[in-house]
Amino acid sequence: GHETERSKMAPYTTGTISLDPNPDDEEEKQKLIAQVLERQNTLDDLSLRVDTVKVENLKLKSENQVLGQYIENLMAASSVFQSASPKAKNK
Asked: Which residues contact residue 86 at a Cβ distance below 8 angstroms, ignoring those fewer than 6 apart?
């Protein structure tokens, strides 16, 4: 007699994890699963975004290097026109 009573109670004493197939619990489970999936998605999105930003940064860095090189060349060239210095020939 007492054993069956206790086993009926057991699912409720385990806290949030209920072994009873209540429709409410099923709904809760679905909600939890949805939340977990959502968090995983946002994590994926974030890491993707981080990767994208890294790639963008690399692009910008190399563009900056190219621009810097270009400006240096311009300055070297203009100084050649001004003072006939042989700098521009050094490549």
From this structure: 80
Q: Which residue in 38, 31, 34, 37 sits closest to 16, CA to CA?
A: 31
Q: How far apart are CA 80 and CA 90, in angstroms?
A: 12
- Torsions phi, psi of 20, nearest 5? -80, 135
Residue written as token pair 């521009």: 88
Nearest to 72 by CA among 53, 47, 91: 91
pLDDT digits (tens, 9 = 90+) for 15-66: 555 555 566 788 999 999 999 999 999 999 999 999 999 999 999 999 999 9
